[in-house]
Amino acid sequence: MAHKYDAALAALAQTHPSLGILRMAALLADAESDFDEDALDDLTGQVEAGFLLDVRPDELWPELARGLMARSPSRMIRALADCDALEQILPETAALFGIPQIADEATPVDIGAHLLKALDEAALCGAPLAVRFALVVMNVGKADSPPEHLPSHYKHLQRGLPRIKAICDRMGVPDDCRDAALLALAECERIHRVSRARAGPVALMLERIGAFDGTQNFELLMTVCACDFRAFGDRSGQDYPKAALLDKALLACEEMDSAGLAGEDLAEARAKAIARAFKSERWSEG
């Protein structure tokens, strides 16, 4: 009887041993069924044999990208974690498993498990590689939050920034993926907290994240936030409420952006327009 993963094993045999582990995990992420113990044993054997020790990190990026763009990217990350390869490839991400984070539910969520769900939400909506990479790394600053603060993560932005930059530098991550990850680190939690009552901060945030520039940064960030939102509880596939709110804010700003204003005058006009659209008390009259 043919091995269930003959195709994956054949690809593994044709690949440099140092890259074969990640190649096989990436192929499993694109399979129609979950990996079994035989496949996991094959991966574990390669890791224990030290095949990852002599590979350059930048050589791993194409295989990691292949798996992240698969139909179930969580399978690749989970397989790599289960065979102890993730600790060598992305130790910053591996350290997130078992770390609690506040959720809407009474019980905190495991950041690693949440990451896996968010990745599969990204696959469901056909998100680009930059979004999927951002989901993998944007929380790496939470891995070593002081135990007395858990499940809160004070100052994780300051810890996460140099770690994401280090990951990108050593793996040769493309600029668009790097930029999306850094923007998600800085802004995702703020977007989750957007309120109708705070039109001024919303206007400043939209400018900060490039919403008025016509670049892809805003859309990529909103996709990251939507996938992160859908990974909580039973929200899979749901509309992201903050996206509708920010779309409303952008629409309100269109007239102000064509009025020839600039600098502080434009910023204040945008804030007033958003306040009127949100029916916020501040700046909503006059």
Main beta sheet: 2 strands, antiparallel
Describe the global form: elongated
Order of helices and strands: HHHHHHHEEHHHHHHHH
List low-confidence stretches.
1-5
Distance between the termini: 78 Å
For the biggest β-sheet, the strand order reads 1-2
Any descriptors?
286 residues; two-stranded antiparallel sheet; disordered N terminus; mainly alpha; elongated
What can you see in these coordinates?
62% of the residues lie in helices and 1% in strands. The chain has 15 helices and 2 strands. It has helices spanning 6-14, 17-29, 37-48, 57-68, 73-82, 86-89, 91-94, 111-124, 129-137, 156-171, 175-192, 199-208, 217-230, 241-257, 263-278, and strands at 100-101, 109-110. Strands 1-2 form a two-stranded antiparallel ribbon.
Helix-strand layout with pairing:
Elements: H1 6-14, H2 17-29, H3 37-48, H4 57-68, H5 73-82, H6 86-89, H7 91-94, E1 100-101, E2 109-110, H8 111-124, H9 129-137, H10 156-171, H11 175-192, H12 199-208, H13 217-230, H14 241-257, H15 263-278
Antiparallel strand pairs: 1-2
Helix pairs in contact: 1-2, 2-4, 2-5, 5-8, 8-9, 8-13, 9-11, 9-13, 10-11, 11-13, 12-15, 14-15
Please outline what is shown here.
The protein has 286 residues and is mainly alpha-helical.
